[in-house]
## 1
Amino acid sequence: MKNVSGEELNPAQEKLVETYRLLSNVLMGHRDELAPYEERNAVKALAALWQVMNGLDLDPGQVYELGA
Amino acid sequence: MNDTPYWNPRHETMPRDQLEALQVRKLQYLVEWADSQVPWQSNRLRDAGVTANQIASLEDLRRIPLMTRDEWMQGQLEHPPFGPILAAPQDAATRYHMTSGTTGKTPIRVLDSMKDWEWIAEMWCYGLWGFGVRPTDIVFVAFGYSTFIGFWGLHYACEKLGCLTLPGGAMTTEQRVKQIMEMGVTVVASTPTYALRMAQEAKQLGIDLANGPVQRLILSGEPAGSIPATKKLIESEWGAKAGDTAGMTELGTIMIFECAEQPGGTHIIEDHYIEEVLDPGTADPVPYGEMGERVVTSFGRGFIPVIRYRTRDFVVKVPGSICGCGRTFDIFEGGIRGRVDDMKLVRGTNVYPRAVEAIVREHPEIDEFQIHLYTAEGRRDEIELLVEIPGPNVDAEHLVSQLQKELAEAHEGLRFGVKKVDDETLPRFELKAKRLMDERILIGTEGEQRERA
């Protein structure tokens, strides 16, 4: 997996990216299926992992529509 | 990896050409975001004929008009409470903060979402990690927690780092000093003024701070953190290293920090900001090594896009290579040098409070001071320095005379009155110190009939 600058990510970084994308997909597509404690903690985790995406130059955009 | 001195090793050591390419890409996105979400910004960009896809280099940034604090405040007055600057709906916000209200008619009011708040802490992490703060540290935040943003971001950054974080709000200075000692605190965050205030208090309590547990002080809120004499005094009183940082409510967080190498300035967090230095009169860029006004563009807070914001701060930018830390981030030599609005003209001579403080702090016998401007005989500007010299064994008369001489030498021979005042009569400050009292009726003695600002 490469970032926007064309640099290769290491396996640990790739796992973090996958986790972010998974979280994002859950919040986008399955929000109604989550209990409050699941949903709010997922949003908080997304806000933190967004910083990783940003630091890895993956241009994560904005996530206000997901509540973060 | 945790033994690295960098919070984001790749970005902080990135070659300049790659760093600039990253900034250009982020700028394109920022302009696109502001254009699509904030009609007020969109109008400004349209009037200037700027679109995101036209931005190909950092030179293109100069096509975007400068934004001023007055415009921001006027926008708030016309569209209260936040003005026309929000890029996301208010219900997406989780934090409300405002400026301390020291400049202008109305405070700047801001909102942040959960992601933006994490980013705010992230910027502080660059500074804390870069100055050597680690998860094993115990951090005391000497700050009155309120809607003023102050050290809020630092607090969250310390939690993010895994430090044991002590919120030192709503406490007396005595309580704070005692808790710092009792808890074996290793890092203290405060304004430079308040670091000195706590040191005074410790002396009165018979506490030997210099041999205590504190190893680092994180300073913010005033330019004094980069005034060598003030920093030296703080470091000596605390027996600890003092690192300067600076931020602003308009950005939500810090944009510069001093690294552990202490190069005599503060690195700019250039993977998250573009910091231009312009001539405040012409708005032309000034080269490395020359003083100018900082103009900031921030890539971080999506809720309020900030593009080419005039800060009124004076800075001198130099290449990051002057520091041995390995960062490629440029440096503001001497941190924030003062504010464009701070300069006072006294009988034709420019007087900067920072320069006066630099002289005063060379004399640790002085506990507190105030610069007083007044009009004598209804027509003549005068400047005097009021000082507290509490030590019973200090030759106060000699010190006063020495100060008069040093101040005059540093100000083209301008005559300063220096007066010793009674102990504990000058104001003390926890946040931003205001040590300049301008009570002049008229400014200047050359017939200028303008009322004082």
## 2
Amino acid sequence: MLAVLHVAALLGYALTGALVALPLLRLPGGTVRMPWVLAVATGAVGLHFVALVSYAWRAGALPLSGMAPALSSLAFLVGLLALLVLWLTREGAIALVASPLVTVVLAAALGAGFEPAVGQVASRGPWFVLHVATSLLGLALIAVAFAAAALYLLQHRELKERRFGAIFRVFPPLEQLDRLNYLALALGFPILTLGVVLGAGSMGLSAGLRAIGPAHLAAGFGAWLILGAIAALRLMGRLRGRRAAVSSITGFALIAASYAVLVLVQHGFRAFS
Amino acid sequence: MSQGGAGLTLIGLNHRTAPVEVRERLYWPLAEVPGVLQRLRGGSGASAVLLSTCNRTEFYLSQGSAEVLDLISRQASARLGQPLDAYSYVARGREAAEHLFRVAAGMDSLVLGESQIQGQVREAWEAAQAYSDAVLNRLFQSALRAGGRVRAETALGSGAASVPSASVELAHKIFGELSGRKALVLGSGEMAELAMGLLASEGVRTVMVAHRDLARAAHVAEQFGARAVTFGEAWPLFAEVDIVLSSTAAPHAIVTPQHIAEPVARRQGRPLCILDIAVPRDVDPAVGRLENVFLYDIDDLQGVVAATIGVRRRELPAAERIVQEELAYFWEWYAGRGAVDIIRRLRDQMEAVRVAELERSLRRLSHLSPEDRERIEQLTKALMNKFLHAPTLSLRAAAGNGSDRELAEAVRRLFALPEPPGPSEKESSQS
């Protein structure tokens, strides 16, 4: 049942992206029909929520611990934020990036398999729960900043090169994408920072600060520092437009890569030992 | 309701059948429309709606008899000073309705998908309220609904279809909301003024107008509530404004990277949209390579228009489907009106027979209880409804395909129904 709900949500996310991508194919009648896009996206997020609730029901814990539940929660948050952007701006283009992103993360979660880790989260204490929850929310916001930046670069290229095709028509204005990128980064970085602090605190309480290994320091702290510099320049008004978009994409890539390294260090190496 | 009869009729001319010098002479401003329709009603008693725009003049009549068409033709020919026939067209029945649906959807416009026509159709109908009737009201309501659906459900009305509106669309794609944005105008010119007027209607504020001739600059600046400056004073403004509109008569590029690179560098990444609509171009193409500068010339603006028209053409099949759907709804109602009268008379006659026969029978069956009498009455009603069901459906179907007149006559003879009321009697009974 859990897998079925997740697969249904995944199909919903994919369909949302497909509905928005249709006009890019230049087919007759290929108009972005926002009511449909909104209905399908809302349905997908709703199904995903039900899936997470049913996981929590079965596991007796929040879907935060373990690879599959954490990835599923991350995908849900990105989906939810993208849906919020859809509702507020009535611009479907965000789904072109968010939809594949969510679909891939959710597919990875399904691939990892949902084996409820009963009592695992509770046993790690409330600090750990807060650490994972804030980290995932921060990551989701940075993913939205990434989506806006990617759309910005594509629209920027079309406008610079004077191409007035489907991307020009379907994508939102540059300034709107820049504002979305700014907002998502301005919110995402502090929340992610809170997640990092809570993580360090949680680890310090349970195993002592010395347990934070060099991999955490090198990958996690390094990526956080670079993203922090980007966010600071953005907030100070020193970075905007195309450069801000490129920086956001770099920041997201670094954060994603650092998480991948940390997950590998924490789970992958251990699994092979 | 036969399609070939004097039912719903359209007579008119448009941009495809008449040149502009003919169209302009047969154009009636909205304020004059009630007077025209009043004269038409006075002369023929016809109910009509007159749609008159710069691209078409069309009379829609609920009963387009030969006399009414002749009257319109004579009056229009007199106004034109030559026979109307060479430029006009007449459509009847479903064809007339379909034409209006396509007009309201912008599918028959000179610029495919233009949205102004929807408002013009609405205004024409509203101006003719006193001279319209139930058929025309329903026709125009349905046409406006079809037009609204085409705009909402397809991209037929999307994008910019003229050079000035392409300027606005480009600015929109960079800045989104244009309200409060600042613009600088270099030079003057009809196209620049048109584009600036459109940008101003979006809330863009013209702050400066630069021209070699300061007096000329002051004249243009006055129109937009801006200040006049010389070109030399204009270059630093490239650091402040969001949109630059250039249309000078200079024989070579006057805006070069040397002039504006330094002010643009001070913009801290804010985009600058430069619309160069002069020929020869005012802005050196190298300016477009500066970071965050978006430079468009007249060819680019025409490219936006061409892309829009291409998109709109691709939307035509979807728009056509909507028009046919709405037309089918309207036609079902319109055609069904012809069957209503004969069905009503048939039912009245059958009901009279039923009631008379029931009363006669019940008088002989006085021993029956009230419940049994009620049961018998219900039985007669049920039988009558069953007997009339198939003929009713057949009459409605015949009305839908235009063969109702013959069938109605057959029913009238078979059931010995009274003759239908004459036109004058019918008019007074309807009113």
## 3
Amino acid sequence: MSGGLKIRVKFREHSSEDERRQVLDSLAPDAERLFPEDDDPQLASIYVAELANPEAADTLAALKRSGSVEFAEPEPPRRLHLPEELKEE
Amino acid sequence: MTAPLQSDVATFQAPAERGLEFIPGQVVVRVHREALREAAAAESVTGPFELLAREAGARSAEPVFAAEHDELAGLTMLQVDESELSSDLLRRVAASPAIAFAERVPARWLSGAASPDPRRNRQWGLRAIRWFEATAPDASAVTVAICDTGVDEAHPDLAGVVASYDHQDAGSEDVVGHGTHVSGIVAARANDDVGVAGVAACRIAMWKVFPDEPYQGNFYVDGTRFLRALDAVATSGAKVLNLSLGGTQSSQAEQLLFDRLERAGVTVVAAMGNEHDHGNPVEFPAAYEHVLAVGAVAETDRRSPFSNTGQHIGIAAPGSDILSTLPTTRSPYRPDMSYASWSGTSMATPHVAAAAAGVAARHPDWAPAETKEHMRTTARRLAEMGKQAWTDAYGNGLLDVAAAVAG
């Protein structure tokens, strides 16, 4: 796991490519589509990015305020449910 | 360390049918009796064993007969890594003047006799879910998708079971073994004279979403890979998805993918989590809408002490001391190979996933919501539930696969 904050941004499906690029260029220029091959509007409107600390929280808040963004969220950690036999004491 | 036992592999069926000529991972070495007596020959005796340890991971060398059995003294059985064993290595071992011979252990069988899976009597979970009473439909066309640590496709008990394995740029080896254990619970080949029986005779599609290296003592998915795997499952034709993973934060992006899976006809089952004594948190994806959350019970029919409870639980299944398959290769992340009994809601969940595959085979036109509802309504109410139809420890009760797949 890296040190930055990984985020997911979903734009409203009616937002244009220009609108999306404008938001991302100013806030998360390295963002890329989560499903680059998919032209389904729902999936094609989701982007992922890694934000450098310590500005990450402010950037995430700014993304959420954007009118063309449906949601922006940090990537939640998902871990393996380790069997009891493998847990360290 | 649980080494494969001779009784775990083909002993009753002709090798021509099984394709198995030798007991995997077993070597017998005969040390000359004279060499055993002569202290001067010590190095010529230990050298070959050290060679086997160095090149084939030999361990637990045990005399086949007691020392007083002078006629048969020196016969020694060793467990080795099957993948490292070669004829050349055995020739080099036998080249020592102290060694009479070194050979693999041939498989032996009884003509005409039939044997179920040799370790099945240790699978208490099959009895608990009334697997033996079930009239299972043909589920060979049903695929259960699993997002996990990978799978050992070469495991003898999973031969022909793995329909697809997507590990992308990660290695194919399942170093943790978790995914192989889950896979065995779902679909280890039954009645094949090998090891254990899975709950359903279905196929498995594995997506390896975990890295091979832990982070701060646990394994975390790459979020992008995980979401892409969920999307791939939705379009794969799989009827069931098993998720033995989780975390306390919810995600709108994940919920969106689970909505898609539901619309695509995939029944999703997820583990409640093993942190009951560490705050008993609500965990996702188990707590998402459209996901059947599975808790664990022990052989006593009581909740496994580690199993989380909560308002989102749908059903319970065996999750303590569950015997299943492990990779046949060694790993620093687990003490066992081939088979072991593990405990966790991760082990309960694949019982339900496999049962869902059976339901999908019986009712191919059912939507996931119908499948989940059916398994909940056919679950067995446990004594610990009192008179209640649902509790936050057991959901609607213990999975009853016989009732779930009944015609």
